[in-house]
Structure prediction request, 180 residues.
Amino acid sequence: NLEFNKRIKKDYPFVEKVDTVYLFKNDIFEMRDYNYDQYRLKHDSICIYGEDLRKDISKFNRKRLSKHFDTLKYWENILKGINDLEEYWEYTKLVNPRGLKWLAKKVIRCGFMITYEESNVWASDLYPCYKIFSDKYPDKESEMRLALTAVLSPTSISRSDSLKIIELGRWLINKYVEKE
Prediction:
């Protein structure tokens, strides 16, 4: 796998890393309930040789997906991040760039978690998560863009902008509770 990645990097310098997995078709479809390999094939892979099995795997809905991704942990993490940022502000009167970046990543991914079922795609990179969420909730796009900016350049975010990200996090938690 390391040699393969080196070869890809040489031919395609814009590619960071390629994960290769070798699976037997029977093993993929043997498990009846949840199978992480099925998830990776359906939402996180492309077929470059042989039969593309993605069409034979049903879409992962939130209930099925949460067996792998502990969705409640996302929401708990947002609350923890909000509390940590507010506590830091209370003692220092400064925005904590590391804490803000961490929270902003969680906010962006959580925004995607409440919209991906309608989008019919899966994304793990932050920009597609931001874009899919913003297309569904255009009135929240500016706050989500602030979260994306906080990930890329947390020191450029003011206290008032960090409060907007915090409020978006709270809004997302309420939206998630409504969906359940």
